[in-house]
């Protein structure tokens, strides 16, 4: 058993050698670079980076499954906003129990994810179009519900989920670790995980082998919605309010983490371990650019270049496989 685990670890490092080296080079550069050497390699900043990537990693866990399936989910950023404002509104406007309100926020994410899954699995409408539509619907509903203003919640209980600690560890980081482990178990230890790879690799062959393709798609998009709903509640808790603009561009960060982590955009291939490394690269890159006071517009340009480079590497890899 120990030998098998060691072999898996070795295979993981071999498959992800490029991005692991990139992560180490980035971390070393920020540690020795004069503008960041005093602020980057501190325990406080490390926990800050982990807290910042926690919501992105939740989205990326769902997005990894979606992309392996051969799909895309553009709605997750808007679901963050809608889940956050509704959860906050349930507390501040209706006096609802905080934990019940948070559960309602997560349920909103599940409902939108399930809707995406139903439409995508039962029609031939491309996932890009379906989730683009729900992205706009969810963002619009968040704006309508709040009138464009934040919904504030000042309770310490509310703030604990996003800004609290268990010992020295931020609560969002602990949640991220738990969700990551659950997602890895789903992908590697369950039938649905094997079915996701099968459908993403060859939908027709999966259907002929007896796999319910529509059921697999429904479950994956519902899971992605669940992750977005949970991320929305955590982010609203961290910001002490539900913000109708929250999660703007979050879907791009999640896709970036997944693609940088080595998941193929054509479907059928990818690992959550790679996604974790990808999320760390995106998080550390953003943190380093902030510490260097780089303009936010240039940060967006850099992220775009990173995504393009990762997709190009995936293209080269697929080209070699086809030969």
Automatic annotation (TrEMBL):
<keyword id="KW-1133">Transmembrane helix</keyword>
<dbReference type="Pfam" id="PF02653">
    <property type="entry name" value="BPD_transp_2"/>
</dbReference>
<feature type="transmembrane region" description="Helical">
    <location>
        <begin position="63"/>
        <end position="86"/>
    </location>
</feature>
<feature type="transmembrane region" description="Helical">
    <location>
        <begin position="125"/>
        <end position="148"/>
    </location>
</feature>
<keyword id="KW-1003">Cell membrane</keyword>
<dbReference type="InterPro" id="IPR001851">
    <property type="entry name" value="ABC_transp_permease"/>
</dbReference>
<keyword id="KW-0812">Transmembrane</keyword>
<dbReference type="GO" id="GO:0005886">
    <property type="term" value="C:plasma membrane"/>
</dbReference>
<feature type="transmembrane region" description="Helical">
    <location>
        <begin position="98"/>
        <end position="119"/>
    </location>
</feature>
<feature type="transmembrane region" description="Helical">
    <location>
        <begin position="272"/>
        <end position="291"/>
    </location>
</feature>
<feature type="transmembrane region" description="Helical">
    <location>
        <begin position="297"/>
        <end position="316"/>
    </location>
</feature>
<keyword id="KW-0813">Transport</keyword>
<keyword id="KW-0472">Membrane</keyword>
<keyword id="KW-0997">Cell inner membrane</keyword>
<dbReference type="GO" id="GO:0022857">
    <property type="term" value="F:transmembrane transporter activity"/>
</dbReference>
<protein>
    <submittedName>
        <fullName>Ribose ABC transporter permease</fullName>
    </submittedName>
</protein>
<feature type="transmembrane region" description="Helical">
    <location>
        <begin position="160"/>
        <end position="187"/>
    </location>
</feature>
<feature type="transmembrane region" description="Helical">
    <location>
        <begin position="218"/>
        <end position="236"/>
    </location>
</feature>
């Amino acid at each position: 058993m120990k030998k098998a685990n060691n072999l898996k670890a070795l295979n993981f490092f071999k498959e992800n050698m490029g991005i692991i080296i990139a992560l180490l080079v980035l971390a070393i550069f920020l540690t020795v670079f004069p503008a960041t050497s005093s602020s980057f390699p501190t325990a406080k900043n490390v926990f800050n980076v982990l807290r910042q990537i926690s919501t992105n990693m939740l989205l990326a866990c769902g997005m990894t499954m979606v992309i392996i399936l051969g799909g895309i989910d553009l709605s997750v950023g808007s679901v963050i906003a809608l889940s956050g404002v509704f959860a906050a509104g349930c507390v501040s406007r209706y006096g609802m129990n905080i934990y019940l309100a948070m559960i309602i926020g997560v349920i909103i994410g599940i409902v939108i994810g399930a809707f995406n899954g139903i439409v995508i699995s039962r029609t031939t409408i491309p996932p890009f179009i379906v989730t683009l539509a729900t992205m706009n619907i969810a963002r619009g509903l968040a704006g309508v519900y709040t009138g464009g203003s934040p919904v504030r919640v000042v309770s310490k209980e509310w703030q604990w989920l996003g800004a609290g600690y268990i010992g020295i560890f931020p609560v969002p980081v602990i949640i991220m670790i738990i969700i990551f482990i659950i997602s890895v178990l789903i992908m590697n230890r369950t039938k649905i995980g094997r079915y996701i790879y099968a459908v993403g690799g060859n939908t027709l062959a999966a259907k002929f082998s007896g796999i319910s393709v529509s059921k697999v798609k429904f479950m994956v998009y519902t899971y992605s919605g669940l992750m977005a709903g949970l991320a929305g509640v955590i982010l609203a808790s961290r910001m002490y309010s539900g913000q109708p603009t929250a999660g703007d561009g979050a879907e791009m960060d999640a896709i970036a983490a997944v693609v940088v982590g080595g998941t193929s955009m054509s479907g059928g291939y990818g690992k959550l371990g790679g996604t974790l490394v990808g999320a760390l690269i995106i998080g550390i890159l953003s943190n380093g650019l902030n510490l260097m006071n780089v303009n936010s517009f240039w940060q967006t340009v850099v992220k775009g270049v990173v995504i393009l480079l990762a997709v190009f590497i995936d293209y080269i890899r697929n080209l070699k496989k086809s030969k």
